[in-house]
Amino acid sequence: MGGLPCFSDTCFSSINSRGLENPVVNPRRNTEECLESDGEDEEHLSASTRPSIEAANALAIEHSGWAQSIARSVARGWDLDWENDGLDGAAMEALLYCSRRFDETRGVPFRGYARRRIHEAATEQARRSKGWRKGGASTTTIDDQARELSHELLAIFPEIRTGEIVSEDFDSPEGATRASIRELLMGAALLATKDSPETLTLEDSVDLKRLIRAISGLEPVHQIILWKVYWEGLSLRGLAEEWDVDGLSIIREHKMILEHLCRTVQAGKQPLARPKIRPGLRTLSEGVKVKGFSSPFSSLDISGSSP
Amino acid sequence: MSDKRKTDKIDSISPTKGTRRVEPTKGVQSVGAVRPTSGVQGISRVGGVRSAERTERALSGAERERLLGMIQEEADKLFPIGALPSAQREVVKRAVMMAIDAGIIVKEKEAEEKPPTTSSEGVSGERDTE
């Protein structure tokens, strides 16, 4: 690789003077997830496992080009300027932070450890940038809405940040990549439904009602998961904590719900059997039913006006 | 909270009904000889490696184009006319394209040669080389 990028010296000095602040500004949902994902408790990183400054600097220098690639990816996805909008600096700060905190004894490769953090820092900077506020080069309403929606998607599906959506089976019609894309599309559709404008045409409101009806046909506990995540903005892990259940149970249940909704939407009027509740959530589900359940989706007013 | 639930279920503790003699251990009769291993049959793949490999992978420009095309195809299949309001369908499709595109790393030289298709005026952040 080539030499250090021009901005690196500035970043080194700013980081050192501020005492290694976490560059991720908005820890609303993803930080807790990425900390858990590689099993690191950053607050308890002992001095013995912390890399030396020389080793950390070497890591940062070695991976600076890679961190820039992540910043460029974010800029490309959202049609921003990776330098003028400050994504390069945010990515570099995150890289330096990670290089200081990286613990190789945990067996996680550095890139696996740092990628999500660098991506998060870049996306948070993107949200604060002038380019984002101005709407980038393309200023259509649809693009602006899509940009906001895609940011929410990153919070619900943090695996997108590390490119894990893409598997090797590109050309397989039923491949994992396509399945992941369908789930993302359904997730985005739910978010768009939440943000649906009040002045819907009659035709549009009929379309929306179909989706809401599909959701209303789900088990009560599944409806609550969707409501909490998509309408209240809670993370899947946050929900698991709130319910005191295993995080993976919620993540798998969520995936299953989205798959079911995809099949239901594609099947049209033909009713499908609703998905079963996984063992980890059965007690909770029974509790919801005993208490009496009224669907939060019934309160949605999708009346629509004449076109 | 869970502790309280547990203690509520305990009605009473019944007394123990005396103790019985503990049987003494018997001496070790014999120890079998250590046999040689017959060779390792096979090694299964370690689970975490795949995700680490994926994290490293950079897509070519052609792969990226194919991926974006795949999103278009799946969106058309999943939301045919009548499944979602038309404006929302477009927003949903573009949001997924943006999110995925922002998460993949594209090989630098190819990315420079091929302008992206998601935005109308190309990408300003592709000019640097590593």
Describe the overall structure:
The complex is a heterodimer of chains A (307) and B (130). Chain A has two domains: 8-137, no CATH class; 165-296, no CATH class. Chain A is mainly alpha-helical and 307 residues long. Chain A has helices spanning 8-18, 30-37, 53-78, 87-101, 110-128, 130-134, 141-156, 176-194, 202-216, 220-231, 236-243, 247-267, 279-291. Residues 1-20 and 25-41 of chain A have low confidence and may be disordered. With 130 residues, chain B is mainly α. Chain B has a domain at 56-117. Chain B contains five helices and no strands. Chain B has helices spanning 2-8, 47-56, 61-78, 86-103, 108-113. In chain B, α3 (61-78) packs antiparallel against α4. The radius of gyration of chain B is 32 Å and the shape is elongated. At the A-B interface, α3, α5, α7, α8 and α9 of A face α2, α3 and α4 of B.
Topology:
The complex is a heterodimer of chains A (307) and B (130).
Chain A: H1 8-18, H2 30-37, H3 53-78, H4 87-101, H5 110-128, H6 130-134, H7 141-156, H8 176-194, H9 202-216, H10 220-231, H11 236-243, H12 247-267, H13 279-291
Helix pairs in contact in A: 1-4, 3-4, 3-5, 4-5, 7-8, 8-12, 11-12
Chain B: H1 2-8, H2 47-56, H3 61-78, H4 86-103, H5 108-113
Gist?
Chain A is an all-alpha fold and 307 residues long. Chain A is built from 13 helices and no strands. Chain A is globular.
Query: Structural class, from secondary structure content of chain A?
Result: mainly alpha
Order of helices and strands of chain B: HHHHH
Structural class of chain B: mainly alpha
- Low-pLDDT sequence parts of chain B: 46-50, 119-130
Shape of chain B: elongated
Approximate shape of chain A: globular
Proportion of helical residues of chain B:
40-55%
Total beta strands of chain B? 0
